[in-house]
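Journal club prep, notes for RB
We'll compare a predicted complex against what the paper describes. Inputs for the 4'-deoxy-4'-aminopyridoxal-5'-phosphate case:
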Amino acid sequence: MDFQKDYIEGHPASRKLYQRAVQIFPSGVTHDARFLKPFPIYVSRAQGARKWDVDGHEYIDYWMGHGSLILGHRYPDVVDALYSQLEKGTHFGACHELEVEWGKKVIDLVPSAERVRFTASGTEATLMAIRLARAYTGKKKIIRFFGHYHGWHDAVSTGIFPPFDLPDSAGIPEQFLKTTIALPPDDPKLLEDLLEKEQDVAAVILEPSGGFSGSFPLTTEYLKTLRELTDQTGVVLIFDEVVTGFRYAPGGAQEYHGVKPDLSCFAKILAGGLPGGAVAGKREIMAYLDLKEDAEWNRKKRILHPGTFNANPLSAASGLATLKIIEQGEVIPKANQNAHDIRYTLNRVINRHGINWCAHGENSIVHILMNHSCPKQDTCDRGLCTYDYRRIYHKDPLLLTSFRDAMLTHGVDSVGDHWWISWVHSGDLIDKTADAFDQTITTLKSRLSDRFENQ
Ligand code: PMP
C-alpha cells in the first residue's frame, strides 16, 4: 500500500524472514502484539536503549523487552550475573542459592510480601493468585475490570477489549465464563453493590496502574476504596503488578499508592529480561501452597504447583542483579524523569501539528492517545482527565499500524501507542524520538488525512 511504501522498501531482509515465518507460525509471529502489517522487523542485536534489525537499521527501542528492561538492554551487572551463572549451569533440577536470595529480595522490597513463589510468566502468576484466592475463601467467582490485562488464561480472558461483551478469546467453555465478572474500571459503587449481593466472590484482581499499564490511570483513593470494600467482605484483593512491580517504586504500585493487597503478581522487571514471574502475599494465603504430612490436605486443599522453569537459575541471576540495582534508588526516578521529558516533548510536537492527540502516562510509561486530546496536555503526567475509557480502548487499527510503520521508518520502535521508558532513554535519544514523531505525523497527515479528527 502506498502509505507503507517507505517501510516496505526499507526492510527487504525483514520482509524475507517474514515470508519464511508465515510458513511456520500462525500469522508469522510468536506473540500477538508483534504482528505488524505488512510485516514486522526482525531484530538481531540490542544495547542500552537501542536495537538493530537484520537490514542494518538502528532503532531507539521503546519495547524494552515488553517492559522488562528498565535498566536497558545488556546492562553490565545483569550480563555479568548471567555469564557467571552460565558457567555453573542453566538448570539444576534442584533448589539453588540464587532462588533464595531472589525470593528474599522480593520480600524485602514488596510491602505486602510475606511469602513468595516463582512461576515462569506473568500469566502463570495471575493463574496461581486466582487459584490461591479460591482455595483460601472456598468461593468461585472473580471480579476484574474492563480493559485490565492479566495474561491469557481462561479466568481472565474476558472484558479486555471493547465493547467488553464477549470473551477476548475463543476456546473458553461458557460455564467457565460465568465465574468471571467484568466491571467498568471507574465505578466503585458498582463494585460495592455487587459485593453486597454476590456471596460467591473469591477475589478482585486489577492492574493497580489502571488498565493496560495505566492507559486509564487510577487514583490512590480508588485503590483505598477497593481495599476497604474487599476487607469488609472477606474478598482477596489481588494486585497484578506485572507491569508496576519494581517500576512504580521498588515495592511496586502498592508502595507508590500506600495500599497493600493480599496477593500480588509479578513478572517482567522481576526477572530482568528473562522469563519469570511470581506471586507474593500474605502468609496465611500463600500457605495453601504448603505441602503437609496430611495426605487429605495435599490432595484436596492445597494448590498444586510444579513448573519446569520456576525460579530457573538464569532468571534468578538476572532478576536478582536487576532488583539489587533498582533497590539502590537511582533507576526509578531517572526512568520517571525520562518519561516525563518524553511526554512533554511529544506533546509539544502534537501541539505544533494542531492534532487531537496526547502523550500521557504515569511514572516510566508513555501512552499516546490518538484522536483524543487531554485538557491538561501540556503538563500531562498522569492523564487523569475526564476522558472515557471506552474511547481510549477503542483504537483505529489502520492509524496505529501506520504509526508503527512510520515510526520504524524514522528509527523508533514501540508497541505503538504504548512505550516503556528505561533510565537510559535520555538526552539526545529524546530529541531523536521527537524528530521521528514529528516526521511520522507529517507522513500520516499527508497519507491518511481522513484519520485525523480536528482539534
Ligand atoms: N499482567 C499484566 C498487567 C501484563 O501486562 C502482562 C503482560 N504484558 C501479564 C499479566 C502477562 O504476563 P506474561 O506476558 O509474562 O504472561
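Talking point for the session: The first strand starts at residue 43 and ends at 47.
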